[in-house]
């Protein structure tokens, strides 16, 4: 490494890095920043320090070179390929000849379907820079804040052929759920990078809004954000990297919405965040790796129940189940566990859980949703999220109003006992507030 501070011989670089040097020189850039060269890979402190600068490094770059077609550094940016994918045909139409451009079907997929698009770190490497060059196996693509072009369409790709971006600029906090849904489907070599590899985007949003960021979630409207749903699950994470209430605790895709569900930040909340305690790997840096975090919620309803395995969804990999009681007579009450598990596992069948309604939607098809949680046994009223539940209106029944939905929970005969709560407070007018902790 000491020798590299003085000089980096060309033969010591991978083919992709050598091509990046050629591209930078051709474009007359004086400096080139390469992540795996400029970050000392086996130095945890340097990696932590550099990760905190991603927002300014990529956001302040003149251009980002993306070796989209390469599986690794040995393949480079340039490939043997046809000189042009574009051809013309002339068709006689209404007595005159019309010239048409012909391109391969899904040709824009040459950028989105490339190996690089599957890497988790690449999400912020695509969103933060102002200008990007994508070197694919078919042609070179260009994207900036004003246009999207390529060799086939140098003046700009026509709308029918433009690959739809999961997120459009400018980046805002309103796009966070879409960013997470995109990012969660990507791969990471190091599991603990889950929050670090998206920290540059979070920092950009926080700098613009002043909002507090905790373990992949935003303090503003956090109650609504708790009801994320896993899909295409890759299984549980072997090490701690986020609290169970955060989407970052799981591998695999995450959605905050689903067909027919009311907009995310709507509905009557049954929970209220009362406290958040988090410890990050870097002091005073909420964008760094999370070591531990506890969420305290004031809850209107908490019910003891039993989870019973029903089936596994082949398409999404969901483990589906039912809650017994209080609504075993309702076929429209179902749960989805956060992690795909063997249904023969005894913890899945007739296991004690609690359900925590978080949001009620009066007058909607889906009238209530919330979390399936399980006591940790480590402290009174302390739980871990293990799943998500959805209660939808019975077919042919009248729409439920807010009071009727609430009564469904109040009339249940399996309310949590005092020992199930972390704290109980008697407040004015004879009311009682109950609190639980989720880690």
Automatic annotation (TrEMBL):
Q: Where is the Heterokaryon incompatibility domain?
A: 11-125
Checking InterPro entries in the record gives: HET
Q: Which domain of life is it from?
A: Eukaryota
Q: Report the protein name in the record.
A: Heterokaryon incompatibility domain-containing protein
